[in-house]
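Per reviewer request, we include the raw input and output of the structure prediction for the construct analysed in the revised manuscript.
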Amino acid sequence: MPIFDYACLSCGKTYDVYHKVREVIEDVICPACGSTEHKKLISVPAAFRGESSSDASSATSSCEAGGCCGGACSLN
């Protein structure tokens, strides 16, 4: 399912909309204020959304300790 990010032009909140097949403009309604005025945002790929700062620091410490650095070896 395609996921699109939007910014509400009325209240400034950002939100995601899950579309079944393609973007349907009638489905884009701000959950905070109900406005249909919005701006489509450039999204970060889902593979990068879940990484937290603790995940990034553990990858760095693994590299510093001589371990596999962020999937550079065939072990990940």
